[in-house]
Amino acid sequence: MKRDISPFHLGASLYIPAVHKDIFKVTTQSKYPNLKSAIICLEDSILDSQVEKGERNLKEILIKIPEQKLLLFVRPRNIEQLEKILEFPEIEKLDGFILPKVEMGNLERYRKLFTEEFYFMPTLETAVVFDEVELWKILEFLKEFQNHILSIRVGSEDIGKSLRLKRGCEKSIHEIPIFSRAITNVVGIFKPEGFNISAPVFSCYKNLGTLKREVEGDLENGLFGKSVIHPKQIDVVEQVYKISEDDLSEAQAILKENLAVEGFKEKMLEKKTHSNWAEDIILRNSIFGGKRW
């Protein structure tokens, strides 16, 4: 039975190749027991020659994993592989799938796979992120299946590939205008319609200070949820997701008071305008707690 979750429950999602040596320890929670979610990747993180091994590992994982708290998703290589995986025994143990390189040209085929048993996270990571007309078409298509869509993902690595770019480790993605434009396009079109937008991965193991700054920028730009590629990135991301005392008290005041407008610590709070933000703050606080930084 599909679990009742929100994008906030994903936290920092550990992205792990399907052939990684520790994949069984991660997915059975014997390693990183506090990890909230993981994504098993059968796409860009493994070689073509490793696909069969990755699929065998996934089958074994589905047999081994017990009932657990860990939210578990798979990123298939393509639609054909997703169709194949959906026939694996005990596939219902997964929470859902990442849909790679989503465009209007492949959404008709994906649509047949949108079932009640799973959540889906379409990834916008091709040149489509710069085409607002196409993004509006994708939005209208996905609105019909919105209850199956946990989040819309923005894939910066493939966007960089299309631009022949590879970003470094010193700047956050929000400090690079071409990437910022892509994110703004997606957020501005999809988020007002009720879709959560998750943030691109930070592909450097080091520079945790830059990662922290990037996650802060994610929140400021309306993004929530971030795939991580190394365990030491998890705590950095989830520390930023913690709620400050000021934000929590403001959120509680907004939801508690019956006044349309209220002065609070030298700020104006408007119930109709700020209630959505306040509800998100309360939910985040229940999952991640108060901020230590």
Count up the domains: 2
State the separation between the terminal residues, measured CA to CA: 38 Å
Largest sheet: 8 strands, parallel
Strand adjacency order, main sheet: 7-6-5-4-3-2-1-8
Spans where pLDDT lies below 50 across 5 or more residues: none
Instruction: Report the structural category.
Output: alpha/beta
State the helix count.
11
CATH architecture identity of the largest domain: Alpha-Beta Barrel
Helix content: 40-55%
Mean pLDDT: 91
Which term fits the overall shape?
Answer: globular
Per CATH, the superfamily of the largest domain is Phosphoenolpyruvate-binding domains
In a nutshell, what does this entry contain?
This protein has helices at 23-27, 51-64, 79-85, 104-111, 132-143, 156-163, 177-190, 208-220, 232-240, 245-256, 271-288, and strands at residues 12-17, 37-41, 71-75, 96-99, 119-124, 152-154, 197-198, 226-228, 261-264, 267-270.
Question: How do the helices and strands line up, and which of them pair or pack?
Answer:
Elements: E1 12-17, H1 23-27, E2 37-41, H2 51-64, E3 71-75, H3 79-85, E4 96-99, H4 104-111, E5 119-124, H5 132-143, E6 152-154, H6 156-163, H7 177-190, E7 197-198, H8 208-220, E8 226-228, H9 232-240, H10 245-256, E9 261-264, E10 267-270, H11 271-288
Parallel strand pairs: 1-2, 1-8, 2-3, 3-4, 4-5, 5-6, 6-7
Antiparallel strand pairs: 9-10
